[in-house]
Amino acid sequence: MINYYNPTMSGINLAKFIKLSGVSKGDVAEQKGIAPESLSRHISGRSNFSVQDAVEYGQILGVSPERLLFEPNPIKISGTTDFNIVTMFDNSESERFLNFHHFMRPSISCLITDVDQAAHQYAKFIWFFDTAYMKKSVVHQHCFAEACIVKTMDNRILCRRPYPEPQAKDKRNAASLTFTLQALPIFQTSAEIEQNILLKWACPIINQVQRPDLIGIEIDP
Question: Looking at the domain covering 74-209, what would its CATH class be?
Fold first, then answer.
């Protein structure tokens, strides 16, 4: 697992975002008005840099000062998907994480692309979803008609939009609510539809990243 936390302000993040920006170290030093040796000391950790330094570096590199000052949050990778079927990792596999500088609640997890099943142009996609909804006794309204990770009563885990179906008057138990599931039309122009599906849970997808390599996300090997 990646070592995410460092008690000192080191230059690990600074070096990373200089590389991502495409700006040379010499240009960064010149724009900041310091000698290249001073920048090297910040990058190597031989000289800690201040909040004001982070603000100035952030303006040059086009990132927020927080992303330079603070270590990123570890987010658990729960499984893989081809954007249709989800395969969750089981307890026999080592836990994997990615580090991301944006703050997310502890209940947020993510899926990475199943590179053996998905088209190559989607190989780097990451989908973030809120696992807190797994613990709810019914499918929450936040999930209705929205892109979600859902688990059916026959234990399939899928990427779908769940639409609640009209219920007969004698079906007043929320646990018996059935859904029409619409596949997310990523590969096809017309999305697959399933009707009268009972769900164990549905978790809303809250974010999607197409190029994690360009915004500083690192994934455990």
Answer: mainly beta
